[in-house]
Amino acid sequence: MKKIHANVIQFRGNHYDFGYYQGQLLQNHILLENRERQWKVRRPLFDIKAEETKAIFQEVAPAIWEEIIGLQDALEWPIDRVLLEFGGYRSTLTPSGCSILSGKDFLVRNYDYHPKTYDGCYTVYQPTDKGNAVIGVTQKVTGRSDGMNDKGLAMGYTFAHRKRPGDGFVCNMIGRLILETCTDIAEAVSLLKNIPHRGSFNYVLFDKRHEESTIVETSPRKVAVRNGSACTNHFQLLTEENRYYLEDSKRRLESIAERQVSPLSGEEAFQLLNGTEHGVFSKLYGQWAGTIHTSAYFPTKLETWFALGGDRTPVSFDFSAWLKGSDFSVTKVLGEVDTDIPFVHMEKVDWYKSL
C-alpha cells in the first residue's frame, strides 16, 4: 500500500491573483519537474495556438484566461508552455474509468485514472471579480475533475472513448467552465451544447432542485441529454460513439444497479463506491483506471466529502461556512492506494516506463 496525500488549497480574490498564487505554489514543485521530463519522452499530439485559445476563452470564460496569465507571470514561462500544461484546450487524453451515482440531495463519484496524472489538490476558490465560488478536485491545475459551486450545482465526468478527437476544450476545463459559469443544470446543458469538445465524455450534473442527475453525452460531433442516477464509461444514447470493449463499464453499472433496489442515503452511496468489495472501486492503476479518490457533494447543505483510496472515512468540508469566511482547518487529506506506481505530485516519475 502506498501512502498518498492531497493538499487543500483555499483562496479568495480575483482570477489573476489566484493564478499568480497557484504559480507560486508550483515553483520548484516536483509536479512541474515530472511534467517537464514527460515532454522530453512523449511528443504532444496537438498544436498550441495561443491566439485561438485566448479568443475562445474570451468568449466563454474571460476570467479564467486572467488566471492563466497570472500563472504565466508567476512562473515566468512563455504562453505556449503555460497553455501546454494548463490551458485545457486542444489537448489529448488517455482512457480512464470513473463511476458516478446520484440520489436525493447527493452526487458521489469515483475518480479512476493513472497516478502519473494526479495533481493532488483539493481546491476551494471564491472569485471577487466574476464567477461562482467552487470547491472540488483540480486536474491540470486550472481544470476540475469534479466539484460543486456555491449555487448548489455539482458535476463529475466519465470517459467514453478517445476516437476521432476534435479541436476544443478538454474534460477538466469543461468541468471548471460548468461550475464557475453556470447556476443550474439547465445552464450547464446549454453550455455543453454550445462549446467545442476535444474528446468524448459523459458529464453528470446535479443540483438542489432535482432528485435525479442529468447526464450529458458529448463528443466532438454530437451532444445528447438524458436523465439517470448512475453513470460509468459508455454512452446510452450516442451508442455509435461507444468503444468496442464495454464489459468493465457495464459491469460497474450493474453493480451499482443491484444495490439501488431501495433508495440509498448519501452515506450508503459513498460506501458503495468507496468500498473495495462492492465491485465498483477499481484497482486497475496500471491500466489507467484505478480509483484514486471518492468525492461526495450535497447541494442543499453545501457540504462535501473527500477520500483518497478505498474503504476510507471521508473528510467532510462545510462549504457553506467557508463561503461565510470560516477557513477549513484541514490543510492535507491523507490516504492509501494499492499500487507501487509513483504519483506525479509526490515522487520522481520515470516516463520511459509504462507504469
List keywords for this structure.
single chain, 355 residues, alpha+beta, Penicillin V Acylase, Chain A, nine-stranded mixed sheet, seven-stranded antiparallel sheet
Brief description of this entry?
This protein is α+β, with helices and mostly antiparallel strands. Helices cover about 30% and strands about 30% of the residues.
Question: How does this model look, in words?
Answer:
By secondary structure, the chain is an alpha+beta fold. The chain has ten helices and 16 strands. The strands form two sheets. It has a nine-stranded mixed β-sheet. A hairpin with a 6-residue loop joins strand 8 and strand 9.
Give the second-level CATH assignment, the architecture. Answer: 4-Layer Sandwich
Strand element count:
16
Oligomer kind: single chain
Number of helices: 10
How far apart lie the N and C ends?
Answer: 16 Å
CATH H-level superfamily title: Penicillin V Acylase, Chain A
Shape: globular
Element order: H for helix, E for strand: EHHHHHEEEEEEHHEEEEHHEEEEHE
The CATH topology comes to: Penicillin V Acylase, Chain A
* Overall average residue pLDDT: 93
Bin the strand percentage: 25-35%
Q: In angstroms, what is the radius of gyration?
A: 19 Å
